[in-house]
Amino acid sequence: MAALAPPVAAIRVAVRRALIDLPPGGPVLVACSGGADSLALAAATAFVAPRLGRAAGLVTVDHGLQEGSAQRAAAVVRWAREVGLAPVESVRVEVAGRPGGPEAAAREARYRALADVAARLGAAALLTGHTRDDQAETVLLALARGAGPRGLAGMPVRRDLDGVPLLRPLLEVGREQTRTACAVLGLSPWEDPHNADPSYARARVRADVLPALVRALGPGVLDNLARTARLVAADNAVLDELAGAALADVRHPDGGLAVRALADLPPAVRGRVLHAWARELGAPPAALSHRHVTALDALVTGWRGQGPAHLPGGLRVLRRDGRLAAIDFR
Ligand SMILES: Nc1ncnc2c1ncn2[C@@H]1O[C@H](COP(=O)(O)OP(=O)(O)OP(=O)(O)O)[C@@H](O)[C@H]1O
Questions:
Q1: Phi/psi zone of residue 58: left (φ > 0), alpha (ψ -120 to 50 degrees), beta?
Q2: Residue at 223 is within a domain
Q3: Which amino acids does the record list as binding ATP (predicted)?
Q4: Is residue 64 part of a domain?
Q5: For the chain, what percentages of helix, strand and coil (3-state, to nearest 5) are there?
Q6: How many whole angstroms separate alpha carbon 23 and alpha carbon 232?
Q7: Is ligand 1 within 6 A of the CB of residue 258?
Q8: Which residues contact 275 (CB under 8 A, 6 or more apart)?
Q9: Is residue 1, in this structure, part of any structural domain at all?
Q10: Residue 35 assigned to a binding site
């Protein structure tokens, strides 16, 4: 028997590691665009899942934004059926009319559709093809925009998507490995024109910044950026836990948060408490920024009798009687 190409083996090992601890139950579903990353992931999952006694299916989303998008989706579906993935679904989403830029709107519509399909099929998990290189780009972009630890932690290897675990098995696999795996397996991945479109910051980081960093600092840069994300994520988990306990402690019996107790917290914990409380009040997480948390913090540590802090979602928070209290203007 011919030796298995190292990238194919590495991707299968990564998928096995992600699936092995899932509780028994429904199929795992690969979210596949037809690009090299998710195609290599789908091929590996089709191989690994049955050997773990589990069904593996695939879902592809047609955003209807590019010419030929329906044909791309149909080609992915045909291939998936040929390699024995089941169930296989193609979902068409409507992106126009959603808030935010076109990229954000497409992502939001895609995750909504993926969550719906996963719930309808009783999926045990949804798998995406994000790689170490996507993670390195995410960390660099976060650094460049001055993000805090939440941004620097990059993408989690596992998170909840409306009750279904979303897994990223390839977060430690290099993009060149998914390309090579596809070539070895005779697969022809789709090239997303957005990935090379210099009007997107991520595409510029991918095409120019990371290659320049690798030339200047050596090939370990990509692994190192991904490692930074893992290290920061581990610290975040502890700080989030501390903040959860602190939030319970600073709640005032009559509602709101006690200012004096908040002021006694270390700043790193207080910021998280205020962030968590704002989310609890109904501020949409995607719109909640450092600026909003700073405005809340100023009511605690920079009090000069100022007016309310404004939060996204039409919420205002003011300081009164030694407490932070929310007013809902929605
Ligand atoms: N149209 C789509 N349908 C289903 N899943 C998708 C679609 N687009 C993206 N995904 C999922 O999200 C992951 C990240 O997509 P993104 O476009 O950000 O990265 P990418 O590096 O171009 O990935 P790929 O090479 O797999 O397209 C993909 O690997 C795939 O799992």
A1: beta
A2: no
A3: 33-38
A4: yes
A5: 55, 15, 35
A6: 28
A7: no
A8: 243, 288, 293
A9: no
A10: yes
How many helices (H) and strands (E) the chain has is answered by 13, 10
**Whole-angstrom distance, CA of residue 250 vs CA of residue 260:** 9
C-alpha–C-alpha distance, residues 196 and 66, integer Å: 14
Tokens of 103: 């990229």
The 10s digit of each residue's pLDDT in 98-136 is 666 777 888 989 999 999 999 999 999 999 999 999 999
The domain in which residue 281 lies consists of: 251-328
Residue 188 assigned ligand-binding role: no
pLDDT of residue 98: 64
Please tell me the distance between residue 49's alpha carbon and the centre of ligand 1 in angstroms. 20
The tokens for 302 are: 């920079």
Q: Are residues 213 and 272 located together in one domain of the fold?
A: no
Report the predicted TM-score, pTM, of the whole model to 2 decimal places.
Answer: 0.91
Running DSSP on this structure, what letter comes out for residue 251?
B
CATH of residue 302's domain is 3.30.465.60
Indicate the pLDDT class of residue 3, thresholds 50, 70 and 90. Answer: confident
Residue nearest to ligand 1 atom 14, measured at CA: 130
